[in-house]
Design brief:
By secondary structure, the protein is of the alpha/beta class. Helices cover 31% and strands 24% of the residues. It has two domains: 425 residues, Rossmann fold (3-Layer(aba) Sandwich); 134 residues, ANL, C-terminal domain (GMP Synthetase, Chain A, domain 3, 2-Layer Sandwich). InterPro entries: Acac_CoA_synth, ACAS_N, AMP-bd_C_sf, AMP-binding_CS, AMP-dep_synth/lig_dom, ANL_N_sf.
Length: 668
């Protein structure tokens, strides 16, 4: 099969604009009309955005009122005067995240689907609002009876299945603090995370299936549980073997804990908590050192998730959000944006391209997904397999495709319109675990331009700063956020004096959040993320983001993936290799090397043509799929392999072994 042919496209070309009907029916249009009735009139997205960052208290209060936040108490301060990272929001009030996710249980037929789910072990099925609500109330009641209360940590070593969603909602419903890790995480990766927060109860599965292969987790679970002395209860879900109870210690089965009478809605009380109460702990990738335990609160997440789900994803009642994710990535937490908007969430656990890359499109068609999130890396696989989703599947329900996880090239945008649908809203967005949402987002009020992220999100004062701390336009700088946002971390667990928090984000520009990405904003507001700051290619004083190199590399059908690093050598020289993973049936010839050099010289920079192109069997990536540029760079600088990255935090540790051997051979 061959990939669909797309017309030539240049960066910034307008590929799509919302029609009048779509604009009239959009969530953001209705919100702006609501604001106008209250004396706030705005002409388009940029006018609205400017108000949202100039007067954040008024903006976030409007979100509170517009979505009719369920709460107790009266607002003392919408936002306190404390500077970042100590700013607090809606003090004096108490609310609960799970209560908002499940508030629509009786808004319509309770038997309508809330969750669509499937895995390599389970066929496609649905769970209704009534079933989720009943299970959450029963499990939450059981947790309370087991002595779990507000602030206690409850963790999960579970895949992306309905039981994980129910466990998360039940935990947060009673004010306990949630955290999760995917079962493909190795034992030490899980221990590095969970040991920092001292959980009281853990949900576990016996194993999972990925790419057609079964993975028993019994041995890893024994090691994990042995390293978590604070765990008092283990709740087991037989997933790989439905009858399995083969754990190293006594457990309570999922079936047993839910085998109790129903708890009626009117007989269940959600634990409404203050604005500084921990909702969940998300963790940074932890490729080197202990991952950061990022704590977010109920208030901030509820507000941010309503804003993003409604105005940056345009999810609506009855719609369905489908993101391919594991429970170890913040994207999994955002799947609840569907139910939050009285819609549905689509869960899938397994290899995204097994037996081939048609899989996710088939799920989207079967579930009538309206918003689908995929990575540019996955799109590359789809293209290489000659799949044309809009031709091969009924995607008539699909309204939007979100290109997330890494920067998207103009060619990826153009392919989306040619191969998925000419009237979808394709949007590249960029955010972070730290916010559990987007920083740079999109809006149907703005045109889709090839290769660009449309705008900073509402309420997000994102800019590019030069090295001397000045805002810059049409120039590459550091991505910063100048004013507080509600979903910024409350703190890092155990970091009582904000020392690690401050060192991570406020060490460069005091009082201003430095995110760690290289970014460029153009004159009309579009943004380009050019890679992580610590992976910038700085050669002879000329800096370029690695994402710019990858944009060119993604156009070579012979190449599946690539990674580039630049290291400084003694005497002022540089060594910049480009590693490539070849597509099946292709080899790295001298002609291909010459073509790569020629294209990079003309499309990027003569100073950033690699010193050599090296074929690698696989490109190392983190568990969330990000290229491991910094660890590879450290290997080439001579750092010992055991210090550059945790193997358990690596998606494909064998790939890192190859790079360690390459570095050793070069040094020798």
């Amino acid at each position: 099969m061959t990939d669909i042919q797309t017309p030539p496209v240049a960066e910034g070309d307008i590929l799509w604009q919302a029609g009048s009907d779509r604009l009239a029916g959009s969530n953001i249009t209705r919100y702006m009309a609501w604001l106008a009735d209250r004396g706030h009139r705005f002409e388009g997205y940029w006018d609205l955005w400017q108000w949202s960052v100039d007067d954040p208290a008024a903006f976030w209060l409007s979100i509170w009122d517009y979505f009719e936040i369920l709460h107790d108490g009266e607002i003392d301060a919408v936002m306190t005067a404390d500077p970042m990272p100590r700013t607090r929001w809606f003090t004096g009030t108490r609310l609960n995240y799970a209560e908002h996710v499940l508030r629509h249980e009786t808004t319509g037929d309770p038997n309508r689907p809330m969750l669509h789910h499937s895995s390599e072990l389970r066929p496609q099925a649905t769970v209704s609002w009534a079933e989720v609500g009943a299970s959450v109330r029963k499990l939450a009641t059981a947790l309370r009876e087991m002595g779990i209360g507000p602030g206690d940590r409850v963790v999960a070593y579970m895949p992306n299945i309905p039981e994980a969603v129910i466990a998360m909602l039940a935990t947060t419903a009673i004010g306990a603090t949630w955290s999760s890790a995917a079962p493909e995480f190795g034992a030490q990766t899980v221990i590095d995370r969970f040991s920092q927060i001292e959980p009281k109860l853990i949900f576990v599965v016996d194993g999972y299936r990925y790419g057609g292969k079964d993975h028993d987790r019994g041995a890893d679970l024994s090691r994990i549980l042995g390293a978590l002395p604070t765990v008092e209860q283990v709740v087991s879900v037989g997933h790989l073997d439905a009858a399995s109870e083969c754990f190293a210690r006594e457990t309570i089965t999922w079936q047993a804990i839910l085998n109790r009478p129903d708890v009626p809605r009117e007989g269940f009380a959600y634990e409404r908590v203050p604005s500084d109460h921990p909702l969940w702990v998300l963790f940074s990738s932890g490729t080197t050192g202990l991952p950061k335990p990022i704590v977010q609160g109920h208030h901030g997440i509820v507000l941010e998730h309503y804003k993003s789900a409604a105005f940056h994803f345009e999810l609506g009642a009855g719609g369905a959000l489908f993101f391919y994710s594991t429970t170890g990535w913040m994207v999994w937490n955002t799947l609840m944006w569907g139910p939050l908007m009285n819609g549905r969430a689509v869960l899938y656990d397994g290899h995204p391209a097994y037996p081939d890359a048609k899989l996710l499109w088939g799920i989207a068609a079967d579930t009538k997904a309206t918003v689908m999130g995929v990575s540019p890396t996955y799109i590359q696989m789809v293209r290489q397999q000659g799949i044309v989703p809009g031709r091969d599947f009924d995607l008539s329900a699909l309204q939007s495709v979100m290109l997330v996880g890494s920067p998207s090239t103009p060619e990826t945008f153009a392919w989306a319109y040619a191969a998925i649908g000419s009237d979808i809203w394709a949007s590249s967005q960029s955010g972070g675990t730290e916010f559990c949402s987007g920083i740079l987002a999109g809006s149907p009020l703005l045109p889709t331009r090839a290769g660009e992220i449309q705008a900073p999100g509402l309420g997000t004062a994102a800019r590019a700063y030069s090295e001397d701390g000045q805002p810059v336009t049409d120039a590459v700088g550091e991505l910063v956020i100048e004013t507080p946002m509600p979903s910024m971390p409350l703190f890092f667990w155990g970091d009582t004096e904000f020392a690690r928090y401050t060192d991570s984000y406020f060490d460069t520009y005091p009082g201003v959040w430095r995110h760690g990405d290289r970014v460029k904003f153009n004159a009309h507001g579009g943004a380009f993320v050019l890679g992580r700051s610590d992976a910038t290619l700085n050669r002879f004083g000329v800096r370029i983001g690695s994402a710019e190199i990858y944009r060119t590399m993604e156009t070579f059908p012979e190449i599946t993936d690539s990674l580039i690093v630049c290291i400084e050598e003694p005497g002022g020289g540089y060594y910049m290799p480009l590693f490539v993973q070849m597509a099946e049936g292709h080899s790295l010839t001298d002609d291909l090397k010459a073509a790569i050099a020629r294209r990079l010289r003309s499309e990027r920079s003569p100073r950033h043509v690699p010193d050599e192109v090296v074929e690698a069997p696989e490109i190392p990536a983190t568990l969330t799929g990000k290229k491991m540029e910094v660890p590879v760079r450290k290997l080439l600088l001579g750092d010992p392999p055991e210090t550059v990255a945790s193997r358990d935090a690596t998606k494909n540790p064998g790939a890192l072994d190859w790079f360690a051997a390459f570095a050793a051979a070069r040094a020798g």
